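Work Package 4 report. The design task specified in the project plan requires that, given a folded chain encoded as structure tokens, an amino acid be chosen for each position. We show below one input record used in the internal validation round.
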């Protein structure tokens, strides 16, 4: 079973505008409401690919109820803790000449509610997969991922961390199975500019030296680089296409990679599936479905891009 943890889920309210002017009344040309959060996105794509998954985290208020209803409607298994106070955040994503985002803060998580989360995590068993994805709310310790990884390692749970900056760096000593920075996040972690493929590989090697078993670096339209635990460097170029929505493409890559690895225990296949899922979601209005991912995978393998 693949479990995902989203500590601060959101309703993503996506609005399309022909143009946007600050200080004036702006009217939408289209809008939609989605269940947002990196772990939620991973669970959604895994569900589309037929992989057993369970989305964990915290929800609150009427917005939390809506998030759950959206996931239930998409058949995404979930076991969220409903908090007594506040409401889950709303993130407004404005798509006009440029993309603008306004992200909410979310509800306060109490000590009791954190205890309930650890109770759920304690039920995970050896060879279960746990994906820790996204930022940590200000109301709880930034060391929570480290606490979770420490406990997970004792139970031989396979762990994945998709986070940024110091939040990610602090987890590396717990030897997560997979981390997935993008090239910009990798630059931030290393503290210097990465101008070519060799620089990216060198930076990935540094993170592996700090403890990460597998380092998957997403490169947007250029695909991805994987430095695996066997010290092999694998490259996969992306297919070209019309990018409709880049939100969730990186999360889709994580889901595709895990689906491929769980199916065949083969890193090349996992990388191909990861890039295919990332591209498919970027080319879709919503997170990609199985057929869309399979179609992109066929294009990738037919092209024989290395």
């Amino acid at each position: 079973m693949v479990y995902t943890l989203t500590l601060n889920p959101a309703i993503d309210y996506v609005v399309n505008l022909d143009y946007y002017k600050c200080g004036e009344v702006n009217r939408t040309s289209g809008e939609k409401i989605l269940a947002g959060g990196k772990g939620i996105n991973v669970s959604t794509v895994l569900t589309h690919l037929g992989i057993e998954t369970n989305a964990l985290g915290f929800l609150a208020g009427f917005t939390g109820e809506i998030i759950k209803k959206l996931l239930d409607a998409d058949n995404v298994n979930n076991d969220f803790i409903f908090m007594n106070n506040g409401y889950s955040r709303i993130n407004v994503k404005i798509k006009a000449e440029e993309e603008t985002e306004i992200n909410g803060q979310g509800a306060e998580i109490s000590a009791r509610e954190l205890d309930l989360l650890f109770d759920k995590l304690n039920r995970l068993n050896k060879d279960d997969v746990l994906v820790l994805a996204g930022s940590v709310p200000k109301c709880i310790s930034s060391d929570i991922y480290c606490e979770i990884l420490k406990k997970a390692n004792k139970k031989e749970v396979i762990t994945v961390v998709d986070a940024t900056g110091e939040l990610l760096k602090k987890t590396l000593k717990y030897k997560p199975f997979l981390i997935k920075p993008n090239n910009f996040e990798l630059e931030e972690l290393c503290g210097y500019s990465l101008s070519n493929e060799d620089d990216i590989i060198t930076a990935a090697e540094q993170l592996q030296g700090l403890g990460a078993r597998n380092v998957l670096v997403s490169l947007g339209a250029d695909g991805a680089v994987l430095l695996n635990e066997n010290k092999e460097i694998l490259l996969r170029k992306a297919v070209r296409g019309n990018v409709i929505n880049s939100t969730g493409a990186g999360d889709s890559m994580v889901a595709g990679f895990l689906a491929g690895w769980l199916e065949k225990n083969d890193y090349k296949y996992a990388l191909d599936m990861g890039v295919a899922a990332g591209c498919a979601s970027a080319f879709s209005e919503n997170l990609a479905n199985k057929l869309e991912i399979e179609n992109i995978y066929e294009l990738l393998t037919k092209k024989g891009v290395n």
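The chain has a mean pLDDT of 94. Validation will be extended to a larger panel in the next phase.
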